[in-house]
Design goal:
- The protein has 150 residues and is mostly helical.
- The chain has one domain.
- The protein has five helices and no strands.
- Helix 1 packs antiparallel against helix 3 (48-73) and helix 4 (78-103) runs antiparallel to helix 5 (109-140).
- The model has no long low-confidence stretch (mean pLDDT 86).
């Protein structure tokens, strides 16, 4: 069964959108634990949105990795390969900035801004990947035939 990039990129886009909304909600209304331990922060009982946000971040890193590896292993346009790799690295960077934010006791504004900016870079790369995929599909699609011409 062929890896369906369009489907996986759309799923990744939806998950990125959910992650963005959760991050905004946490910034405005979230409560954060006083621990600097990442594991304790994940198991914190005060705000389940924080746990969902971090779990979704882990899922995004895994999904972005799978998409990037699949792009390099399959018959894909070179641009799609590099866009998915850039998106993966940006997601990984945003994840690392989030870990640094937790380790700072949720007080590091530069880590919070880095997480947001890397997230936006990832969204841009995956948007470019969608465009590259559409262009490749148009280039391969057969030209429509005119039924009146024999």
């Amino acid at each position: 069964m062929a890896f369906r990039f369009a489907l996986w990129l759309r799923a990744l886009g939806v998950l990125l959108g959910v992650q963005f909304v959760l991050g905004i909600w946490l910034t405005l209304y979230g409560t954060f634990p006083s621990t600097r331990n990442v594991v304790k922060a994940l198991l914190y009982r005060g705000d389940p949105v924080l746990t969902v946000h971090v779990a979704l971040a882990v899922l995004l890193v895994i999904l972005a990795f799978v998409i990037a590896v699949s792009a390099f292993l399959g018959e894909t346009p070179p641009r799609l390969r590099w866009y998915t790799l850039g998106g993966f690295l940006a997601v990984l960077g945003a994840y690392e900035a989030g870990i640094q934010l937790i380790e700072s006791g949720f007080t590091s504004n530069p880590d919070s801004i880095a997480m947001l900016l890397l997230f936006l870079v990832a969204v841009a790369f995956y948007g470019l990947a969608q465009l590259a995929l559409r262009r490749a599909a148009k280039a391969v699609a057969p030209a429509p035939t005119d039924p009146g011409v024999a």
